[in-house]
Design brief:
Elements (H helix, E strand, L loop, with lengths): L20 H4 L5 E10 L4 E10 L6 H14 L17 E3 L2
Antiparallel strand pairs: 1-2, 1-3
Length: about 100
């Protein structure tokens, strides 16, 4: 068998597909959507969007603290402020 020979100068063609969100923004400037669940039984949940996150330096603990701070300060999450998020694992990233 003979090894395939690749051209010495790579040719770059424009891709026919639309760029994905992960291709448009680097991991140093990410946007995460977190599903905040208040009650599983009644299916009470709301989505929290965190923008401009550096995923190369952000830890899980820091992310959880940012979520808790956003829930405390954002007007739309007033009903969610009485819950103790974190220990129960109630904050889930939407993938």
């Amino acid at each position: 068998m003979q090894a395939s020979t690749a051209p010495t100068t790579p040719e770059h063609h424009e891709s026919p597909h639309e760029l994905l969100a992960s291709e448009l923004k680097p991991v140093t400037d990410a946007t995460l959507t977190i599903r905040v669940i208040k009650n599983f039984e009644y299916r009470t949940q709301k989505s929290l969007v965190l923008r401009d996150l550096d995923l190369t330096k952000l830890t899980v603990g820091e992310l959880l603290e940012q979520c808790k701070a956003a829930i405390k300060t954002t007007a739309g999450f007033k009903a969610f402020r009485t819950n103790d998020f974190g220990k129960k694992g109630i904050l889930y990233p939407i993938l």
